[in-house]
C-alpha cells in the first residue's frame, strides 16, 4: 500500500492547513493513491503528486471562502477540491455534486471513511439539472476544478449561487483566456468577474490560480421577466 504521508518538504504546510485533521487528510491521500487508482478515478502516474497537485493545491483555495459559507463543489470526481476543503475547514457545510455513478459511490465511501457525515453531502446529478438545483438551493460559494471551460461552467452553476455569492474556478495557465472568452456569457447570466486570485503562495508551487466570478444582485435576464 502506498504511503499516505506528505513529502517531508510539504509536511509543515499540510499540518498548518489540516491541523488536527491531518490524520484524516492522510487517510484521504491513501484512498486516492490506492482505491481511486484501482478504480480508474486517478491515473497511476498521479500517485507521486497526490499531495502537491491534488490535496494541497485544492485545500489552499480555502483562503477565498468566508466562515461558515454553504459551499457546493461541482464535478467533484474523486473529491477534488471538495474533500480537502472540507478537511481543512470544518466550519464549511459542503455538497459534492457529481453525475457519474462510479464516482458517486467512491465519494459516498469517502464520507464514511473520513467521518465527514454532518458536514459533507454527496448528490448525484449534473449541476445544471433542475432536481440538483432544487436540492442544493442557493449557496455562498461554488467550487470547480477541471469540469468545463468557464463559458459552459458559468451558466451551469450561477443559478445555484446566491446574489453576492461566488464561483471559485480553479484554472491553470488558461485562466485569462477562458475569462476573456466568457465575457458574453457573464453579461447574459449576471456574472461579474472579480479577478484571478493566487492561493497557497509559499505552500504549493506553482500557487493555485482561481477565477472568481460573483453573481450580481440582479440578473439581467430576471429584469425582463418582472
Ligand atoms: C475531469 S473531472 C475533474 C474531477 C475533479 N474536479 C478533479 O479536479 O479531479 C470532471 C468531472 O466533472 C463532472 N461533470 C461534468 N459535467 C458536469 C455537470 N454538468 N455537473 C456536475 N458535474 C459534471 C464529471 O463527471 C467529472 O467527474
Q: How would you sum up this structure, described in words?
A:
With 226 residues, this protein is α/β, with parallel strands linked by helices. The protein has 11 helices and 7 strands. The protein has helices at residues 11-18, 22-33, 35-38, 50-59, 82-88, 101-113, 130-136, 150-157, 175-181, 183-189, 220-225; strands spanning 71-74, 94-98, 120-124, 139-145, 161-170, 191-199, 208-215. Strands 3-2-1-4-5-7-6 form a 7-stranded mixed beta sheet, sandwiched between helices. Strand 4, helix 8 (150-157) and strand 5 form a beta-alpha-beta unit.
Task: State the gist of this model.
The chain has 226 residues and is of the alpha/beta class. The chain has helices spanning 11-18, 22-33, 35-38, 50-59, 82-88, 101-113, 130-136, 150-157, 175-181, 183-189, 220-225; strands at residues 71-74, 94-98, 120-124, 139-145, 161-170, 191-199, 208-215.
Write the layout of secondary structure elements.
Layout: H1 11-18, H2 22-33, H3 35-38, H4 50-59, E1 71-74, H5 82-88, E2 94-98, H6 101-113, E3 120-124, H7 130-136, E4 139-145, H8 150-157, E5 161-170, H9 175-181, H10 183-189, E6 191-199, E7 208-215, H11 220-225
Parallel strand pairs: 1-2, 1-4, 2-3, 4-5
Antiparallel strand pairs: 5-7, 6-7
Helix pairs in contact: 4-5, 8-10
Bound molecules: S-adenosylmethionine.
Comma- or semicolon-separated keywords:
7-stranded mixed sheet; 11 helices; 226 residues; alpha/beta; 7 strands; binds S-adenosylmethionine; 39% helix
Amino acid at each position: 500500500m502506498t504511503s499516505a504521508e506528505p513529502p517531508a518538504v510539504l509536511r509543515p504546510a499540510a499540518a498548518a492547513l489540516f491541523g488536527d485533521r491531518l490524520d484524516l487528510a492522510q487517510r484521504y491521500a491513501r484512498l486516492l493513491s490506492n482505491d481511486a487508482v484501482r478504480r480508474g478515478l486517478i491515473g497511476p502516474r498521479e500517485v507521486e503528486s497526490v499531495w502537491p497537485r491534488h490535496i494541497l493545491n485544492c485545500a489552499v483555495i480555502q483562503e477565498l471562502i468566508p466562515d461558515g459559507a454553504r459551499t457546493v463543489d461541482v464535478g467533484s470526481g474523486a473529491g477534488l477540491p471538495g474533500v480537502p476543503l472540507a478537511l481543512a475547514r470544518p466550519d464549511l457545510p459542503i455538497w459534492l455534486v457529481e453525475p457519474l455513478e462510479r464516482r458517486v459511490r467512491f465519494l459516498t465511501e469517502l464520507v464514511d471513511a473520513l467521518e465527514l457525515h454532518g458536514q459533507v453531502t454527496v448528490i448525484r446529478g449534473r449541476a445544471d439539472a433542475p432536481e440538483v438545483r432544487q436540492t442544493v438551493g442557493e449557496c455562498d460559494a461554488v467550487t470547480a476544478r477541471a469540469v468545463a471551460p468557464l463559458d459552459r461552467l458559468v451558466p451551469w452553476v450561477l443559478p445555484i449561487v446566491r446574489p453576492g455569492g461566488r464561483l471559485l474556478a480553479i484554472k491553470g495557465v488558461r485562466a485569462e483566456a477562458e475569462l476573456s472568452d466568457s465575457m458574453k456569457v457573464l453579461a447574459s447570466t449576471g456574472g461579474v468577474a472579480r479577478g484571478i486570485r493566487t492561493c497557497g503562495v509559499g505552500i504549493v508551487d506553482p500557487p493555485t490560480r482561481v477565477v472568481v466570478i460573483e453573481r450580481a444582485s440582479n440578473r439581467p435576464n430576471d429584469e425582463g421577466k418582472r
